[in-house]
Amino acid sequence: MEKRKVWAIAEILSKTAGYLRKKNLDNPRLNAEVMLGHVLDLRRIDLYLNYDRPLKEREVSAFRALVKDRLAGCPLQYLMGETEFFSLNFLVSPAALIPRPETEILVEIVLERLRSLGPSLKIADLGTGSGVIAISLAVHLSGARLWATDCSAEALGLARRNAQRHGVVERISFAQGDLFDPLKGKRGAFTAVVCNPPYVSSDQLENLPPEIRLHEPLLALDGGSDGLEVIRRVVAEAPEFLTRDGLLVLEVGAGQAQVVGELMVKTRAFGEPRVIKDYTGVQRVVMVERASHS
After folding, report:
1. Cβ neighbours of residue 28 closer than 8 Å, sequence gap 6 or more
2. What's the fold here for domain 9-72?
């Protein structure tokens, strides 16, 4: 009977990284380290502190299953079931988009503006997905109350679990429905409305990388024929729900910031929009205050 090969951590990492590289996967070594660390419940640095540790057969089988799914295009974050956002760890699943680093800009801007306004803040997060925006704001604004809406019951369930994980579930009300629909009783109540809306145009969806197009929820990406369908609705309805001088903050797609700013100005309900670039220089966030006279 042929003796089963026993793999050590260093050897299986090296072999797997080489295999992933041949399959043209980006960052092959990082992928191999993250997946093996997940299987062994070790940090990446601990893999190297235990580089000669032999793997059990079930560990090798579990690792190979992850590698197979990764090569089939499943995003690494979904395979791991979690990801980091704004230095916090969040559960993720195909029920909601994977949080992107550029969305952290939106959180930073909102915190910068609201921290000095005292404890009685009320914030609405529209299309909350996995809840990363609302929860990050709740963690850093200890007195704030938040309302998080989403059409998807599965996404709201994920967001609620994340809020429990970070100890803020008592300060966030989760409501199923489209954008402002679940908030009709809160007109004029919100210090800020924040939203990372779908902003990819419908005809661009098929050009997205397969890893996104085939695995992440398209409803959370599809912004209609020009990518601005949802944004128009948020801009039009937001003044009704904001306090005087209340803040509207939107994440937008590349090349959309100027048009979104013009939409805000045309409502005559807002002041002058401010545009903030992301880490790559893309105009990513548009922020505007409701005019006090409106």
Report:
1. 16, 17, 18, 19, 20, 21
2. Helicase, Ruva Protein; domain 3 (1.10.8)
